[in-house]
């Protein structure tokens, strides 16, 4: 019976459109067929079902009891099918990809790579949404997100994109005034720039093999860009992502006093579990992975010749 029903799927669709309009001519226009073709499909379906689906009442087309029952069962199903098909079509025809990312990551890595993205995928229209936090409701306006942390949140598909490599970073102007710390304990003589708490600094001191120390002063700045600007102006030492700041370190503008870097923090590329990704999203994901892999290969090379990563 299931196979027979599927054989009449087109007739069921024609019936549903005709029952919606209660007009074969209007149904024919919607279906882009002739009214006689609509009539033929309805007759074929009635013969298969063994009952009338339509009748004429006062020169007006109406549904029989059986026709009304069938229509109520079918209409939502065909609407769901139409919605699913339209979703797939839009996902694969859309040029735009909405990407949430942290402002610091965008400023110090992604923005400089966009020319490469557009050279490889000129049809991608990238909409960057800058914010430091991510909630599930954010995916109502975004396709993908790049987040920071030790692990991604629950309920998302993810790719580990790039290791952060958190380590103390200072500006050359501070070093010229106060010198460069030689040991982790020397950091007590400097102002330390924290996030909203001391957790990352405490983890770094533990990795470096010493008890946490208090800085001469301790400032708490939850925005990475503001914390970075405070460091650049010589106000203190921050834990920075050495991989993102590599060019400034190599130029001598910034100084990385210690080789110890926190290995657990990283950038993650995430999207909702079960989300149907568009072709453009898949292309962007592939490109981001390739660029991140290129950076990892570069760090492996410079680490091999003795330059701290």
UniProtKB/TrEMBL annotation:
<keyword id="KW-0238">DNA-binding</keyword>
<dbReference type="InterPro" id="IPR036390">
    <property type="entry name" value="WH_DNA-bd_sf"/>
</dbReference>
<dbReference type="Pfam" id="PF00126">
    <property type="entry name" value="HTH_1"/>
</dbReference>
<keyword id="KW-0804">Transcription</keyword>
<dbReference type="InterPro" id="IPR036388">
    <property type="entry name" value="WH-like_DNA-bd_sf"/>
</dbReference>
<keyword id="KW-0805">Transcription regulation</keyword>
<protein>
    <submittedName>
        <fullName>LysR substrate-binding domain-containing protein</fullName>
    </submittedName>
</protein>
<dbReference type="Pfam" id="PF03466">
    <property type="entry name" value="LysR_substrate"/>
</dbReference>
<feature type="domain" description="HTH lysR-type">
    <location>
        <begin position="7"/>
        <end position="64"/>
    </location>
</feature>
<dbReference type="InterPro" id="IPR005119">
    <property type="entry name" value="LysR_subst-bd"/>
</dbReference>
<dbReference type="InterPro" id="IPR000847">
    <property type="entry name" value="LysR_HTH_N"/>
</dbReference>
<comment type="similarity">
    <text>Belongs to the LysR transcriptional regulatory family.</text>
</comment>
<dbReference type="InterPro" id="IPR058163">
    <property type="entry name" value="LysR-type_TF_proteobact-type"/>
</dbReference>
């Amino acid at each position: 019976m299931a196979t027979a029903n599927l054989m009449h799927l087109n007739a069921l669709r024609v019936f549903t459109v005709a029952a919606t309009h209660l007009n074969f001519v209007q149904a024919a226009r919607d279906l882009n067929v002739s009214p006689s073709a609509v009539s033929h499909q309805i007759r074929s379906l009635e013969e298969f079902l063994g009952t009338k689906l339509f009748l004429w009442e006062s020169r007006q087309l109406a549904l029989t009891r059986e026709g009304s029952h069938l229509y109520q069962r079918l209409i939502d199903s065909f609407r769901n099918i139409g919605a699913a098909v339209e979703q797939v079509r839009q996902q694969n025809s859309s040029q735009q990809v909405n990407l949430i990312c942290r402002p610091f990551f965008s400023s110090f890595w992604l923005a400089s790579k966009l020319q490469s993205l557009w050279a490889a995928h000129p049809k991608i229209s990238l909409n960057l949404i800058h914010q430091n936090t991510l909630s599930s409701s954010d995916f109502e306006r975004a396709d993908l997100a790049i987040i920071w942390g030790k692990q991604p949140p629950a309920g998302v598909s993810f790719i580990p994109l790039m290791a952060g490599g958190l380590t103390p970073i200072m500006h050359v102007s501070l070093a010229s005034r106060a010198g460069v710390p030689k040991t982790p304990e020397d950091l007590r003589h400097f102002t330390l720039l924290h996030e909203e708490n001391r957790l990352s600094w405490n983890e770094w001191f533990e990795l470096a093999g010493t008890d946490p120390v208090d800085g001469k002063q301790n400032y708490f700045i939850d925005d990475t860009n503001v914390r970075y600007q405070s460091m650049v102006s010589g106000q203190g030492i921050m834990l920075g992502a050495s991989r993102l700041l590599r060019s400034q370190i190599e130029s001598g503008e910034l100084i990385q006093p210690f080789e110890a870097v926190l290995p657990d923090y990283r950038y993650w590329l995430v999207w909702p579990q079960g989300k149907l990704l568009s072709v453009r999203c898949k292309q962007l994901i592939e490109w981001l992975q390739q660029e991140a892999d290129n950076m990892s290969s570069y760090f492996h090379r410079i680490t091999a010749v003795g330059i701290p990563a």
